Each structure stands twice: as C-alpha cells, then as structure tokens.
Amino acid sequence: MGAYILRRLLLIIPTLLGIMIINFTLVQFVPGGPVEQAIARAQGQGDVFGSFAGGQGDTEMAGENAFEDRYVGARGLPEEFIKELEKEYGFDKPPVQRFLIMLGNYIRFDFGESYFRSIGVTELVVEKLPVSISLGLWSTLIAYLVSIPLGIGKAVKDGSKFDTWTSGIIIVAYAIPGFLFAVLLLVLFAGGSYWQIFPLRGLTSDNWEQLSLLGKIGDYFWHITLPVLASTISAFATLTLLTKNSFLDEIKKQYVITARAKGLSERQVLYGHVFRNAMLIVIAGFPAAFIGIFFGSSVIIETIFSLDGLGRLGFEAAVARDYPVIFGTLFIFGLMGLVVGIISDLMYVLVDPRIDFESRQG
C-alpha cells in the first residue's frame, strides 16, 4: 500500500504542472488583462470590457504608437505610466519567465497578493473557505442521509410502484439545473412572488453578534437552508441511483442466495451481508462527492444567494483578471482534488481490507 500511495503522490507533480501550464497558456490569449483593467479604472471606466465594444476599430498597431494602442483606452496616458503598470504586475517579463517565477513561488506555497484587493491570496482563501466548506459539507451530508435509505428501499422494492414513482422524481430532480432550482426557491420562499420565509442573501443576519448561542445556530440554519437545497438536488439524484444499483448488483450474487438458503431473514441478509459490500462504493466516494459539490455548484449558488465564498471569489477574480487569485486558487483546488483522489482509494481499503492496491501496475 505504501508503494502505491508513493506513486500517486509523485503523480501529483506532473498532473498539477500540466493543469497550470494549460491554464496559464490559455490566459495569455484572453483580452482584458490586469494592465488593461488598471488603465480602465485609471480613466474612470471601471471595467475594461466596456471599452472593447467601441473605439477598437480606430486603433491601429503601427510604429511608435503600437505600445500605447495595445491597451484599449490607453490613449492620453503617459507611456511611462503604462510601463510602470506592466512592471508592477510583472508583465515586463516574457510569459515563460513569469510562469517559472510563479511556479517557484507556488512550491513554497507563496501565492502572492491580489492585484486589486491589497490582500494576500492565502488570506483571501482562508477568509472565504468557511462559507464554501459549510455549503459543501451540509449538502453532502444531507444527500447521503436521504439517498442511502431511499436507494436501499428502491433496491428492495425494485419494479414496484414505489420504485417507479421515486425514479420519476429522481429523474426530474437530476434534470433541473442547480441554478434554476435556486432561482425557483428564491421566488417561492424568499419574497420573490409568494412567501417571505427565508432570507434573500447572506449567511448570517445583521444582528448576528447580538444573538445568543441558540439564536446564532438558528439564524445560521435559517440562512443556509435554501443554498443547501439548491446544491443538493443533483447530488441527491445521482447518489440514490448509485446506491440502488449497487445493492441490486450485490443482491443477485451467489453468497446472498446461500445466506437465504441457510434460513436467514431478509433483514439479516440485507444488513448483515449485502450492506457492507454494497456500501463500499458509496462510502468510499464520500470525499469525491464532497469535492464535487464543493466545486461544482459553489460558483453559481454563492452568486445567486450572495454568499461570500470561494466560488464567488473565483468568479469575481476571473472577471477582474486578478491573476494571482485565479492561479493561486486553481493551484490549491487542483492539489486538493488530487489528494482527495488518494483519500478515496484509502477509504476503499478502510471499508474493505480485501482490496489490495499493491497488485496494481503503473
């Protein structure tokens, strides 16, 4: 097992390097970089993308004016000012050199400072992390608590009316995009057009500090209910079907027939023999399921419900072309995803010690 873990850990290095190279290369071709953003803000435009729509056809890259015209809206600004901006953001160096410097810093877990927030990337991530973890953890737990009993029930009653009706509900739930369900919840229960039961935005109320301990707990769950429901819907559908199919596959095996022939009750067969084997893939997939919900729905859900988490941070950084935040969070999340893959394999061994990864080759 130790050799397998070592191989997987070593594989993280080229995988993470490939992720960073691909994304860094793609970013070089995206217009509206941090220098252009700074120029737009200096001229009071606020956002460089407004400048892309007009006036671009009048710009000709020629002769000594080529440098200034490279940045949309840069006319009227001193060339020295633009060069100073390039130096400040590191764009006075070739892309390859910038990339190598960035990797050298990332190896030391030095992710730099945000271009536009005057705060370190690590501090930003630590500040936003609790919101995203809270959303992802509760969504995953609820998905498991509902999906596992429902999946077992569907497997035991396979082909019955209960199985048919619940399958229809699951298919509908899986087909509904998370963001659309989030909007529906807001319209129905957050004062959109019907009931004002839950708050419209945020994770806590304005008077959070004045609340008692029980009041804070109640206020927290009051705010987190709708975002968690919106995040859970697709994971709930997938996990239920996974549990059902896993149990059906085990129920048809020879050892179950043998257990029944020995006179064991269906409950003893199901929970004494089938449960452990059938739940192997479900339990071992918990880390990956959490990361999937954590990454997959956080951007849209956090934006819709105005939650100040990592998803919203990444979205705002992409819009503002805040490269230290973009690449820093990409590196952190990529590393987390790869480590979680190893943890998932270890979970398989923990649930079923018969699994031997040492027999794998490569």
Automatic annotation (TrEMBL):
Q: Where is the ABC transmembrane type-1 domain?
A: 129-348
Q: Which residues form a coiled coil?
A: none
Q: Does the keyword Nucleotide-binding apply?
A: no
Q: Name one GO cellular component term.
A: plasma membrane
Cite a single Pfam family from the UniProt record.
BPD_transp_1
Q: Taxonomic classification, please?
A: Bacteria, Pseudomonadati, Pseudomonadota, Alphaproteobacteria, Rhodobacterales
- Location of this chain's protein in the cell: Cell inner membrane; Cell membrane
Q: What is this protein called?
A: Microcin ABC transporter permease
The main location class comes to membrane
Q: Keywords of this protein's UniProt record, alphabetized?
A: Cell inner membrane, Cell membrane, Membrane, Transmembrane, Transmembrane helix, Transport
Q: Name one GO biological process term.
A: transmembrane transport
Q: Where are the transmembrane segments?
A: 9-30, 135-156, 168-195, 220-243, 278-305, 325-351
The UniProt family comment states: Belongs to the binding-protein-dependent transport system permease family.
| Cross-referenced InterPro entries | MetI-like, MetI-like_sf
Q: What is the recorded membrane topology of this protein?
A: Multi-pass membrane protein
